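Thread amino acids onto this structure.
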């Protein structure tokens, strides 16, 4: 049953994370992994054996934290607006939008474990949002006021597809804000910098203890 499957995923998230507050977004409490939590020790091969995609949902990535911080610092960006957080992961950006006053927030991710993680994280913070696991890249962008995307430039072909989709959203009238800590596939043109933040990270994951993450607007 779908409900039972979701509860299994929620239990898995609880068992493999701890409630913590992201380094530069202490307004939110999230189910996150750290070096002492079980999922940290699983290799990519072990994850595949278990039938699990990479657990992007259990980290508050630097680009997502920067974008969430920007929304808290500039709540007028989301106040009263209908907002989509693309590739939501842990939901840190979507939840920041909701807490900053968005009228309606949609969190989108194709990883089924994200639904469990985002739901638990929303409950932790007394917030509500709508989750969709639809592959949004397969169709036209929804007619919303603001689209947010943090940390979606890890893979070249996917990064190109995402940018094509985001540009279509911008052309249709949506404002598009991006968060990125300098990933190699992030676009160099067609964006305007709005803010930057120094984000403490887990060195074993990122290869650095801090990263500079930038918030951009798609022109």
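Threaded sequence (219 positions):
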């Amino acid at each position: 049953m779908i409900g039972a499957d979701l509860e299994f995923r929620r239990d898995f998230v609880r068992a493999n994370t701890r409630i913590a507050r992201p380094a530069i977004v202490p307004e939110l409490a999230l189910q996150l992994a750290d070096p002492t939590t079980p999922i940290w020790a699983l290799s990519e091969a072990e994850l595949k054996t278990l039938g699990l995609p990479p657990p992007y949902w259990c980290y508050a990535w630097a680009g997502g934290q920067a974008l969430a911080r920007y929304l808290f610092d500039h709540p007028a960006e989301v106040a009263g607006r209908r907002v989509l957080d693309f590739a939501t992961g842990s939901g840190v950006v979507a939840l920041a939008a909701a807490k900053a006053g968005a009228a309606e927030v949609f969190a989108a991710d194709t990883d089924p474990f994200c639904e469990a993680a985002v739901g638990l994280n929303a409950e932790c913070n007394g917030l509500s949002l709508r989750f969709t696991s639809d592959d949004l890249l397969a169709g036209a962008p929804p007619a919303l006021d603001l689209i947010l995307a943090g940390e979606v430039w890890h893979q070249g072909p996917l990064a190109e597809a995402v940018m094509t989709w985001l540009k279509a959203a911008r052309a249709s009238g949506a404002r598009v804000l991006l968060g990125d800590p300098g990933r190699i596939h992030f676009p160099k043109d067609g964006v305007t910098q709005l803010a930057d933040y120094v984000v403490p990270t887990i060195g074993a994951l990122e290869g650095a203890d801090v990263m500079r993450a930038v918030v951009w607007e798609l022109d």
